[in-house]
Design a protein that fits this description.
Distance between the termini: 57 Å
Number of strands: 0
Shape: elongated
Largest sheet: none
Number of helices: 11
């Protein structure tokens, strides 16, 4: 039962924002029971929250060896890989997550982000379109979608995205217009303070 005691202590510390203490407790739980997947998963997640993605990866992979259909762990692995610049590997993890849970919008967003980082803008646009459909008020998904259309030279689609974004996040619309160089749309956001 020691593994549960360490795990619960880690969970409490994690929820109090004391991630280093949580990591230590989760490691103790795994020493007490190396097959304790809950501790493995929380350890990986806590490491990722601290930006320690290289350390997190083997723990996410350990969870996935035992739970290959865990869409959230697949997403978290993809996120950690993407953060480390391993975009092709991240695409595979995100793609797997979207197959397991087609409505997990953050996996579609991650998939689009990783495709864009690889210069695969057509694939990025398709994934980001899905993310935007699933989470229609996510300005980051819409911004990234607009930038994918910009990279593809699809000015009409960029304009549609900018107009949509202007309805609920004018500042992000301004950023999209500025970053894409769509000067023909600058009048839409001219009255916004910088």
């Amino acid at each position: 039962m020691d593994h549960w005691r360490y795990y619960l202590r880690g969970w409490l510390l994690e929820n109090l924002g004391r991630l280093e203490g949580a990591i230590s407790s989760y490691r103790q739980a795994l020493r007490a029971n190396p097959a304790f997947l809950r501790a493995e998963n929380r350890l990986a997640y806590s490491l990722a929250r601290l930006g320690r993605h290289e350390e997190a990866e083997p723990h996410f992979r350990a969870v996935l060896r035992n739970e290959p259909d865990n869409a959230v762990a697949q997403f978290n692995l993809g996120y950690s890989l993407d953060k480390r610049g391993r975009h092709a590997d991240a695409v595979e993890a995100f793609r797997h997550a979207t197959r397991l849970a087609p409505k997990i919008d953050r996996a579609w967003y991650g998939l689009g982000h990783s495709h864009a980082a690889l210069g695969q803008h057509r694939e990025a646009a398709a994934a980001l379109q899905r993310a935007a459909e699933l989470q229609p008020m996510n300005p980051h998904a819409w911004y990234a979608l607009g930038m994918a259309h910009h990279a593809l030279g699809e000015a009409e689609r960029l304009h549609e995205v900018a107009h949509h974004l202007l309805r609920f996040d004018p500042k992000m619309a301004r950023r999209l217009i500025q970053d894409s160089g769509a000067t023909d749309l600058a009048h839409l956001v001219a009255d916004l303070a910088a």
